[in-house]
Amino acid sequence: MAAALARAAGRAGAVAALALLWMLLCAPRDAGCHPLTVADLFDRVIRHSGRIHSLSTALYAELEKHLPLRDNKLGRPARKCHTSGMLTPNGKEYAQKIPREELTHLILKLLQAWKEPLSHFNQHIEHHQELPDDSLNKAKQISNMVHELKTGVEKVTEKMQSMGIISNSLNGMASSESTGLSISNEANMMSDSDFIHCFRRDSNKVQSYLKILKCRIMPENSC
Prior knowledge:
Layout: H1 2-25, E1 26-29, E2 32-35, H2 38-66, H3 92-95, H4 100-125, H5 133-162, H6 177-188, H7 192-217
Antiparallel strand pairs: 1-2
Helix pairs in contact: 1-5, 2-5, 2-7, 4-5, 4-6, 4-7
């Protein structure tokens, strides 16, 4: 039964990823598929990141409720987040000073840094019998949605590059693929509650940086 549910969740995640990809390519109109503007693309990835942050907030509350002692180790200092070594701007004022290409790269880097750890977290959390199915489903959903969001941000990046909004220098920056792998072991050492707390923090950063990037590219939005 558990295996069947896992396969169903995997299929649902794949369908959702394809749906997001289609939404990032065009908008349905009476005459068929209408190409999306950069503003449309940003709106979609920002909404998607908002849903991820909301899910992680709900999951964090559930972990605190159902795993209060053994796994959350109350009474000890929280572990430092595995992404703490990344230089990320604190506050809108500092983020606005970063070149567009670097801010875009930072968003992708943060998303990549969570892909592998979230996959391991899903495998680990399934062994918690005290957690309700809804919590397990939230964890799987978050992992799938992070993958979808990274794909979406890559599509937005390609669109901006093709329009000359940002330079192709982003392609020459250090690959973010190795980042997630190099710090995943550190992430796996955290308690479940600490892990989701850190993810929630970074998902909020991603959403904020996406909003700032959109505003800098389209200042007519007065934000």
